Task: structure prediction
Amino acid sequence: MNAELETKRIIKFIQEYFNQHNLKGVVLGISGGKDSAVVAGLFSLALGSENVFGVTLPCHSKEEDKIDAKLISDYYGFKLYNLDLTRVFDTFKEEFNHINIETLKDSDINLKPRLRMASVYYLAQALSSFHNERYIVAGTSNLSESYVGYFTKGGDNVSDISVLGNLTVSEVIKIGEYIKVPEKVLYKSPSDGISGMTDEEKIKVTYDEIERHIKGEKTPNHERIMYLHNSTRHKFKVPTYEKSN
Result:
């Protein structure tokens, strides 16, 4: 992949879409990882950093992630808000205390990205009203994650525009290198910042293997990748009854 050419194409894609739909700016969650950093960088280059608004959304999270998010906002010069969702998360869970269902860890993990996405959209609408301009939400998911369904339905897969959705992890890194994302963030082991595990530890397969699989190569974890790919298709399309004519 030619990173320079691809970056210019992405920037043109953003600019044309925003001009076509009379949009002013973009809002996105800044996790402190490479994906959100690359997306923030691309939009800053395409729209000007004054039209990019990032938000950190800690929720029982590591302080390092917020520090890395600030590193990215300082580098590209966009506004960064911090909305701590810890109390919101805890209050939400407390409301279920009267229901006789044991709280599952997986439910906790999936709740966090859903609260985060609701917050990002809330901020986008607030900015739109305040500035009397239209702000939309940028997604940060990449192709490697999507291929194995590594996202929360109704959470981090929800957005108004996606610029990494057809790029694998290694391609995202190449774009990041070209737009000079700080190395501390660009080469950090990807994780959800929630479980205390890296992405690869959670899905039990490496992103390199996923990428090779996508490109048609046979990998040792072929069956694992196909299992993840096939078992998560429900995240992409809701079965909908079709009435008869």
Q: What stands out?
A: The mean pLDDT is 93. The two ends are 48 Å apart (CA to CA).
